[in-house]
Amino acid sequence: xxxxxxxxxxxxxxxxLMRRGCTLYTQxxxxxxxxxxxxxxxxxxxxxxxxxxxxxxxxxxxDRAEESLAAYDKSLELDPxxxxxxxxxxxxxxxxxxxxxxxxxxxxxIRVGPVTPEFHSGRAxxxxxxGRRGEADEARRRAADLGxxxx
Length: 151
Prior knowledge:
Blueprint: H1 10-26, H2 30-43, H3 49-61, H4 65-78, H5 83-95, H6 99-112, H7 117-129, H8 133-149
């Protein structure tokens, strides 16, 4: 008699789909990745911030910015201290022309850290878009300082 295979629960199935989606994403197969990641978050929406994070990246690359923003929001609901998710969310907001919201998201990314030069560069762009040149120049200087230190 053969061995019985253990039944996979929904969390395990969602995790397998998330891993498959991440693999497909790294292979450049965006639509297939999106399908796997979407199934993952449909099965278990509150389990993996990473599934929502990568899904948000894919959606943005497929020019679906509003959906990308919603996916970043869900990712941050699950992991509010993910600085990179805050930064990426800020980039989506900037792309949507919501520069004040983008600035606030860059500021959150900087607060939760670790900070990279890109956080301050993005902040500078948002400040420029809001006509706040002096603050934008200071943000660019901070980005340059961090880059020079290898942060």
